[in-house]
Design a protein that fits this description.
Layout: H1 28-51, H2 56-67, H3 72-77, E1 101-104, E2 111-113, H4 130-133, E3 168-171, H5 194-205, H6 208-212, E4 214-216, H7 223-226, H8 232-240, E5 246-250, E6 253-256, H9 259-278, E7 284-287, H10 309-319, E8 325-329, H11 336-342, E9 348-355, E10 380-385, H12 392-412
Parallel strand pairs: 3-4, 3-7, 8-9, 9-10
Antiparallel strand pairs: 1-2, 5-6
Amino acid sequence: MVVVAGVSSDSGPKLVPERPEMNRTKNKAMVNNNHSWNNEAAHQRSKRRLENIISVDDINEKKANKGKELTMQDMYNDINGLEDEEDDSDWEPCSKPPRLLTWFCCNCTMPNLDDVQHCDTCSEHKESGILKHGFLASPFLQDDVNQTELEVKENPEDLLPNSTSEATAIGFDERMLLHFEVELKPHPHPERPDRLRVIAASLATAGIYPGRCYPIGAREITKEELQQVHSHEHIEAVDLTSHTFSSYFTSDTYANEHSACAARLAAGLCADLASSIFSKQVKNGFALVRPPGHHAGVRDSMGFCLHNNAAIAAVAGLVAGAKKVLILDWDVHHGNGTQEIFEQNKSVLYISLHRHEKGSFYPGTGAAIEVGSSGGEGFCVNIPWSSGGVGDKDYLFAFEHVVMPIGETYFQS
């Protein structure tokens, strides 16, 4: 994230007290004096503004303090950067600033300005046909790239593995697309059905799914399975949303009447996929699911997440006979829910790479000193980035020097 620091007033200067009524006919000299008084007032206001200019460090500190109170949705909506919430009542702009934000990428869901033709985040074209054709547009292609379809030269049936034990399994269920935010807002929610639609469309067009991969169906997770990671109260709270048209756990974590079912399907699919991999029915797998899960803790739904799919998959692997499970989480946000569930468990090693910024980045957890507790010390590894803009080389370095050595030692011990 790029922070542009400009000139701003820490606290807007107070209005100059309203001067008394003047009798222009009786005291012309007083009128002239008023004119000088106005100039002096304007000069004082300008002087106070110059004295109240804050430095880049002050802006960053203010933004950090503000970030602690923001939700993920707040940060997503705050695309214009730092806003000055203090009083600046003596300054009136000539006109309202133009609305530059006009489109949201249908591939990665991120906002873009109207003069941008390709998404700044993923390079998908502004008029992308990805939902119809399933391709990712290159920023170097022509503007009419949305009319182009990705050709599948190979026959998918000829690419199937000889047995399912050599196959990559993919799980998907269209009922998970029924989970969406009912309330219409100027900024569409970043976690919306399009996130799965574009992935499924791309895989289908490339002949990967269905075709080269082994499909597995989704089932609804049982309450007994959910209780291995979540409290009874949490499970009941999610289930209750099926009786409401629209509801919210937090300001950015929504639910509708289909959300509880979607969450159970996502959790059930992840559990079955983990069991299938451990039992060697398939070689590996990819769960194409939503709502996401790593912010969901033992008792709380937050950060777009209802049930913790990764935690449920880990437990399913242990139930299937695995002695050790490693969860590698490289989402930009720390998986505070996953860490909470397993922080005292030696059978599950949790490693997370995430943006942290000394706790000012959502959800504020995941410092390097958080290593587990109550006998689980050392089985929680946090790699917190101190700022945004971390690139591939940083991740490769972290994987080579931290993630892989710890993972290898864990499974060899």
